[in-house]
């Protein structure tokens, strides 16, 4: 079939971009969409619709959440999460209007929509009011750089690790406060965060008595991320909301214990390999961190369980699930 277009504008090193890149590498017979500009631009739905019409598209697939304003061909999008419905601080009137009046109608007409977790699947079914058969979970995977038996980051002090961003739903504020409790008890422990700090988090850290033991890391490659995962006491993800939680799988694949929130998709991803906490309870977060820091046998057991859990997430399997879903649409 000709005219099958993949929206490769999403391809990037992290987040949705990693999903987009890994899936693109495993799909054959698809052309990259001949359109520039950001897929998150306010004008993109109109530009995308024109592009598909001009190029006589037979099917359009986005590894992200964007859709055209209109289309005469089948449209398959990937809705990773519905954070905008739950986090008022991370939405806007324009974003809510886009989801309600552009994306939602298109998703409801689409033969299938992809997502990455069972948690997100149920949210999509409920909010878009569509049949269960219209939503397919394809999951996420672990890139080959993330493995246990390689170099670990040399560090003079034991450290906890966070990978993500500092948007409100990531709950980094609680992590910083919990770490301060841990650091008061253990004078040689550090917190390393792979993120760009928001102004609010920057101010919080500046007022923290242990600010000299909090390090921000920017622009780490996958190789460096893997080294840092392997060297950490544990990776901590205190999010209020996740559609998946890819850093947890990357950490487990590197043999790093994981401590995480007990909300949304996170228990599904971690299974019985990690320790879960109430993200609203700073003392509970700190207690979990101290428990893992104090107990080397626990860390060893978590490492083994984590490796077993991470083995369930393979990009080759994700690619095959995506291929089958798209094939069913193309054949219909």
UniProtKB/TrEMBL annotation:
It is an enzyme of class 2 (transferase). Keywords: Glycosyltransferase, Transferase. Residues 37-141 form the Glycosyltransferase subfamily 4-like N-terminal domain. CDD domains: GT4_MtfB-like. Pfam families: Glyco_trans_4_4, Glycos_transf_1. GO terms for biological process: lipopolysaccharide biosynthetic process. GO terms for molecular function: D-inositol-3-phosphate glycosyltransferase activity. Its EC number is 2.4.1.250. InterPro entries: Glyco_trans_1 (IPR001296), Glyco_trans_4-like_N (IPR028098). Residues 145-307 form the Glycosyl transferase family domain. This is D-inositol 3-phosphate glycosyltransferase. The lineage of its organism: Bacteria, Pseudomonadati, Planctomycetota, Planctomycetia, Pirellulales. The gene is mshA_1.
């Amino acid at each position: 079939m000709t005219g099958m277009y993949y929206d490769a504008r999403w391809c990037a090193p992290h987040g949705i971009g990693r999903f987009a890149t890994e899936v693109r590498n495993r799909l054959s017979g698809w052309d990259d969409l001949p359109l520039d500009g950001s897929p998150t631009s306010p004008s993109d739905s109109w530009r995308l619709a024109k592009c598909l019409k001009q190029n006589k598209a037979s099917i359009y697939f986005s590894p992200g959440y964007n859709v055209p304003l209109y289309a005469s061909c089948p449209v398959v999008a990937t809705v990773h999460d519905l954070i905008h419905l739950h986090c008022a601080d991370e939405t806007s009137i324009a974003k809510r209007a886009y989801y309600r009046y552009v994306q939602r109608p298109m998703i409801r007409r689409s033969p299938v929509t992809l997502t990455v977790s069972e948690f997100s699947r149920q949210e999509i079914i409920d909010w878009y009011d569509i049949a269960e058969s219209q939503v397919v979970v394809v999951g996420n995977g672990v890139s080959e750089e993330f493995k246990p038996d390689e170099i670990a980051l040399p560090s003079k002090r034991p450290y906890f690790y966070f990978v993500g961003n500092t948007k409100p739903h990531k709950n980094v504020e609680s992590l910083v406060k919990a770490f301060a409790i841990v650091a008061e008890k253990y004078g040689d422990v550090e917190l390393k965060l792979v993120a760009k700090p928001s102004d609010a988090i920057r101010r919080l850290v500046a007022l923290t008595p242990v600010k000299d033991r909090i390090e921000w890391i920017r622009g780490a490659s996958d190789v460096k991320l893997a080294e840092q995962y392997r060297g950490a006491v544990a990776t901590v993800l205190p999010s209020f909301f996740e559609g998946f939680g890819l850093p947890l799988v990357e950490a487990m694949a590197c043999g790093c214990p994981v401590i995480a929130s007990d909300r949304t998709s996170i228990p599904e991803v971690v299974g019985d390999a990690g320790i879960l906490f109430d993200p609203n309870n700073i003392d509970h977060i700190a207690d979990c961190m101290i428990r893992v820091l104090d107990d080397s046998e626990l860390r060893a057991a978590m490492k083994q369980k984590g490796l077993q859990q991470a083995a369930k997430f393979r990009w080759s399997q994700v690619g095959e699930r995506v291929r089958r879903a798209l094939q069913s649409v193309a054949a219909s």
